[in-house]
Amino acid sequence: MSPIRNGHDRQITVGIDIGSSNITCAIGEMISTTKRVRLLGIATVPSSGIRRGSITNRDELIDRLENVLMEVELMADIKVTKTILSITGEHIRSLNTQAAIALNRSNGNPGGIMERAINEGDISQVLDLAQAVSLPVDRDILHTLPQEYLVDTLEEIKNPIGMIGRRLEGRVHLVTAATTAMNNLVNCVEELGITVDGLVFQPLAAAMATLQEDEMELGVTLMEIGASTTNIAVYHGSAIRHSGVIPIGASSITHDIAIMLQIGIEEAENIKIKYASASASMSSPKLDIELPSSSGQLERVIPEQEVSRYVEARMQEIFQMVIREISRADIKDPLTYGIVMTGGGAKMRNIVHLAEKTLGVKVRQGYPLKIDGGEDFADGPGYVTAMGLLLWPLYAMDHIHMQRSGSGGFKDFFNRIRHTIEDLF
Is residue 8, in this structure, part of any structural domain at all? Predict the structure, then answer.
């Protein structure tokens, strides 16, 4: 067998989406001329040792990570040396903040102002100030995402470079996370001899792979339904306005079925996948599902529609929590383009119909864009986050990501940025 290549002769991008149900690793080649990624390999293994973004068994998680990396390296014929990871969890918080700097100084003459054009240094300075918020000692900034700039009285500027003014203001969306949770996740991957280039909040990666420019401009929400969490990201004016984590996901449906029918989790998951409909009215009242029974027990059956009622009740609860989360985005008409659903939970039968009926807006399933070579086997909503991680180096406008590039390690960077922010106070 030929040795696996290291991929140094090409622009290789690697992403590992670490979820509570599955771990997916994808390898792609960046095509800079078209700003697209060609998928070279992808692998998925059942997850273990992590739940709701928190590690519950480090050894089990490392073992699963090693398995998925071996599979994807064989498929792509490339040795993985560095990667970008996804992260979620109840510890993640977001907020919007802003800062401003004076651009021009007096030239010494009475009333004289020395004018000059805004440059990248000015933008970096205002973003540094905007992210200089006081955080608890156990938290760090995960993302600093510019929303818009203001030059004097001119608003809604996306790129102020080259403009002339006296005052530059920047508005940003900050995503913060527990330092311990981030470091533990990074340590698990680094134990396998792989450098972690960055961590990305899951719905931001999913949005990068699925949302179109028109949707983000006029208003859309990305809803990622995972196994144990539902993550959202609200976009408007081509920028993210709110993001959050709801600590409930598709595995809650499995537990509901298991409890109501008094069966095991594995059997409940199989019933959910094969028979359950998110909309009970669209399931059959005449189709009976045979329930597993031990020897000596009576055989039991239940109508498909009865199971779907359990599913619909739980999904409506999730949708109501999503509505409350979206309302926290202080913008007018946040859902002009409705909702785009991704994640494993988005594959549930008739879920789009129920979402449109419950939420009263247009809903569609999200599929990866800007990715070549993944048709027919890696183009479902469950692969979206992994695809977004591949695109992150090409499209991310994250100030933290820009600062981290070439900083010599993930944890070293966090130490430096924390000291820099402390010096500002």
Answer: no
Task: Tell how far CA 175 is from the center of its chain.
Answer: 11
Which residues are CB-contacts of 253 (< 8 A; sequence separation ≥ 6)? 272, 276, 310, 311, 314, 315, 345
What pLDDT band is residue 291 in, cutting at 50, 70 and 90? confident
We report the CATH number of the domain holding residue 115 as 3.30.1490.110
Residue 146 within any structural domain of the chain:
yes
Can you give the pLDDT at residue 1? 41
pLDDT bucket at 423, cuts 50 / 70 / 90: low
Number of domains in the chain: 2
The two structure tokens encoding residue 236: 């408007």
Nearest 5°: the CA angle 359, 362, 365 is: 100
Domain encompassing residue 164: 93-176
Phi-psi sector, 272: left (phi>0), alpha (psi -120 to 50), beta: alpha
Helical H segments across 7-119, by residue range: 58-76
- Which of 261, 283, 312 is where one domain is finished? 312
| Whole-number Cα distances in Å, 397 to 105, 143, 221, 349, 392 | 29, 10, 19, 35, 9
Q: In 3-state terms, what secondary structure has residue 259?
A: helix
